[in-house]
Amino acid sequence: MTLTILGLGPGDPSLLTRAAWDVLVAAEEVWLRTARHPTVAGLPAHLTLHAFDDLYDAAEDFDTVYRTIAAQVLALASRPQGVLYAVPGHPLVGESTVLRILAAARDADVPVRVVEGLSFVGPTLTALEIDALDGLQVCDAIDLAAQHHPPLNPDLPALVGQVYGRALTSDLKLTLMNQYPDEHPVALVHAAGCADAAVVRLPLFELDRQDVAHLTTLYVPPLPTVSSFEGLQETVAHLRAPDGCPWDQKQTHESLRTGLLEEAYEAAEAIDAGDVDALQEELGDLLLQVLLQTQISTEEDDFRMVDVIAGIDAKLKYRHPHVWGGVAVDGAADVLERWERLKRAEKAERTSLLDGVPRALPALQQAYLYGERADRSGFDWTPAAVETDGAFEQMMDGIAELPPEDRETALGDMLLALAERARRLEVEPEAALRKACARFAERFRRLENRP
Question: Hey, which of 74, 127, 317, 334 would disulfide with 330, CB 3.0 to 4.6 Å?
Fold first, then answer.
């Protein structure tokens, strides 16, 4: 039982390695993942050629194709003569079938020989005149096009291989435009390593207007300024380093607390003003606070940014089983109810729906969230002082009868009047409402705990 996997190189038969040529000359037949590769025309004339191209036309998706090819190659290896399986480029660059075959062969204790070939990467670097060690990222177009956001560092260049069709480039463009500007200059490299190699430079938004084929690669250069999360982390870590800024060096979680709250409120103010330019700036300031807090924890060996990101990513996926778990939901209200149920299951120490509402919130926001949480359980409560005040109910009924666009104004005026009345009575309204929230929470928890 023998299994040989051979790389055919990028396309020009002259780029076959000497080792690959010797194996091909000594063989009687070769099984090709695809015969649609320029090197095939230059293979030794005596070879009997078999190809798996018919599977691509019959199968529903690539995963089925690759799984079928891997199974057939492993079966062929059990013959007395074994099997020589050849793939474009290098066997371990963009070849899903090879990874499947290697894993299956390992499980079956089948020895495998891998005969390396030149991948598309080297000739593409030559065509673009770039250095791979400048942080080059390499990914598959099919995988990237299936994403909603590209898993690429925009501070570094990227090669996207196997850009084979117009529909794929359309999806690929939309994914990339979630991070890169529409006008970002990119390049399509056609048939790198072949005599007819060509480089077409264009703005990203024109990507799906170009002809592409199975030997097309997309080059995405880096953005001109620091734009990645990692790049900003480096900036913040530098500020905290011995050669950084004395002010940043002495900050602590506690000293940054006020700034964290202020930046959150400034972002909220930009949202209220509908000022997207200000919102962009304030979100940057808020992100800086997150990075500073995390960098301090990194230095103290408490946790790192990867822990923060892994935690919130896992939480989001756990709390959205209707997106990642195949659970059916009936609208947004059902999503919220399931969200609360999952939160309680996550944190068994929480015994009340009100747990998790931050105590540091402004009292009015706290009261709003308390009411929202309680409403989900069907609990409806109005303070006794209000229940006996018919004037209050009349005012609220009047506001409810207003057009939706006027209700916020009327209620805002009422809250402002209450704040002014509190000032005249020498009552601090924030403290008064906070105490009322505490009384509400105490009563609600007692009701929750009733047998």
Answer: 334
